[in-house]
Amino acid sequence: MSSVPTSVITTSLFDLFKIGPGPSSSHTIGPMKATFDFRQRLTQLPAETLNRASEIHIHLYGSLSATGKGHGTDRAVVAGLLGWQPETTDPDELLALLSDETVTYPVELGAKTVEVGPAHIHFERKPPFRLPYANTMILRLTDAEGTTLAEEEYYSIGGGFVLRKGEPETPTNSVTVPYPYQTMKELKAHLKANRITLEQLMLANEKAITGASEKDINRRIDQLLDVMHRAVRRGLRQKGTLPGNIRLRRKAPMLYAQAKGLAQTSDSFLIFLNAYCLAASEENAAGGIVVTAPTSGASGVIPGLTYLAKNHFHYDRATLRRGMWAAAAVGFLVKHNASISGAEMGCMGEIGTASAMGGAFLTECAGKAIEAVEAAAEIGIEHHLGMTCDPIGGYVQIPCIERNAMGAVKAYNAFLLATAGTPSDQKISLDAVVKVMKATGRDMSTKYKETSEAGLALSATEC
C-alpha cells in the first residue's frame, strides 16, 4: 500500500462527536481542553521554575473575548486548569465555578499551587496582533514581578478541536488509512472501485485511526446515541427559564405535549421533531451534557433526528449506526475543506453543517445510494449559505435554539428532495458547495461571526 498524503482526512468519528458540557464547543469544550493541556505542560517545568511561579493569566481574544461571558468560557478555562475534562465534567459543578467573584481556585502543579480567579481572566477586546484564528487564547505563567515563566498560544477551531501554536492543523504523522480521501468525489471513487458500502469504508478507516475493534467502535457509537437521546429526554421534562439575562423560557415540554395531543394529525410529525431538537438544544443552552454534532451550538439537530428515527421510524441500532457514519463523512468533509466554527463560517458552519449531516443520516438510514446521500448533504448546506452567527447577549439561546429545529426540518426536506428524483440530476456537488461555503465565510463581515456586534444580537435591548 502506498503512503497516504498528510492532507487526507484522518479524523476519528469520536473526535467529531464529543461528549461534554454546553453551551459551546468552541467556547467551552475547546478552552477547557486548552487549559488542561497547559496545566499538563506546566507540571513538566523544572522545579526551580515552578518555585518562582506566582500567577496564571488567561488572555482571550476574538470571539472568545466578544461572547466568552455568555458562553461560559471563563468557567471553562478555570475547569481545565483544575484538571477537569469535558467528557467527565459535572455540569452543575461547572456552572458553580466563578459564581462568587471573591473566590479563587487552587491549581496544583506538582509541589507548587497557584491560585486562579476572575482577576486572572482577561477578555481582550483589541488584540495587539492579527489573530490567526477567530478563537485565540494566550496562557501565561508568571512570577511575582510579572515576568513570564511559560507561555502557550491556543486556537479553538470549532467543534471542540484545539490547536497549539506551532502545531499543524493536519498532523504530519497522520496514520495510514486504507481508503484515503479529501473530497466526496474521492470517497465515491473508493466505494465504486472496491464495491464496498459507505459504512464499510468509514469503519475500516476508523479502525486504522483509533486501533479499536469493530465491536468497541459500535459500542461507542451506541453510547453517543444514548447520550444524545438522554439530552432529548431531559429537555422534554425540564421547564422554567434558561440561565442568563435573557430569561428565555423553555419551549420543548410545551411542544411535546402539543404534539401528543395532535398525534393523529399531519402537523404532529413536525411538532414532535421540533420538540426533540429544542429539547436537546435547550439542555445545551443550560450547560447540560450534550454531544457535539458537529458543535455544541448545533447539538440539537442530529440528536433530534436520531431520536425521531428511533422512536417514529423504529430504526434498529445497526441502521442508526449506519446513518451516523454518513453524518460523520459529511462533517469530516466540511471540517477538512471549510470549517465547522461559527467564528470562522458564521452559523452556516454549525447549523448548516449539522443540517447537511442530518440529511445524509436520513438518506443513508433509508438505504439510498451514495449519490442520494451526497445530494441531501449538498441541499442541506446550500440553503444555509451566508447564515450569520449573531447570538443575543453571547448566549447560545436566541436564535441558536430555534435554528437547531429549523436545521433539522431542512435536513428532513433535503432528504425528501434528494430521494424524490434521480440524484445524478443534481447540478451542484457537495464538494462544490463546500468550496462556496468556505469562500462565503471568508467574505462575511467579522461582525456577523459570533461577536454579538451585528444582526439579531443588536436587538438585545428589546429582550
Structure report:
The structure is a single chain. The protein is of the alpha+beta class. The chain has two domains: 25-158, D-3-phosphoglycerate dehydrogenase, domain 3 (60s Ribosomal Protein L30, Chain: A, 2-Layer Sandwich), CATH 3.30.1330.90; 184-462, no CATH class. It is 49% helix and 11% strand. It has 19 helices and nine strands. It has a five-stranded mixed sheet. Strand 3 and strand 4 (112-116) form a beta hairpin. Helix 10 (214-237) crosses helix 12 and helix 17 (370-382) packs across helix 18 (400-420). The longest helix is centred in the middle third of the chain and has 24 residues, at 214-237. The protein is globular, with a radius of gyration of 22 Å. The termini are far apart. The relative contact order is 0.13. The model is unreliable at 1-6 (pLDDT under 50).
SSE layout and pairings?
Layout: H1 13-16, E1 19-21, H2 25-42, H3 47-52, E2 53-62, H4 63-66, H5 68-71, H6 73-81, H7 91-96, E3 105-109, E4 112-116, E5 121-123, E6 135-143, E7 148-156, E8 162-164, H8 184-194, H9 198-210, H10 214-237, H11 252-261, H12 268-285, E9 289-291, H13 301-311, H14 317-337, H15 342-345, H16 351-365, H17 370-382, H18 400-420, H19 430-443
Parallel strand pairs: 2-5
Antiparallel strand pairs: 1-9, 2-6, 3-4, 6-7, 7-8
Shape: globular
Percent helix: 40-55%
Overall average pLDDT: 94
Termini separation comes to: 60 Å
Radius of gyration based on Cα positions: 22 Å
Low-confidence stretches: 1-6
Query: How many domains make up the 3D coordinates?
Result: 2
Helix/strand structural class: alpha+beta
- In DSSP terms (H or I, runs of 4 or more residues), the helix count works out at 19
Q: H/E element string?
A: HEHHEHHHHEEEEEEHHHHHEHHHHHHH
Give the biggest sheet. 5 strands, mixed
Give me the side-by-side strand order of the main sheet: 5-2-6-7-8
Strand content: 5-15%
Count of beta strands = 9
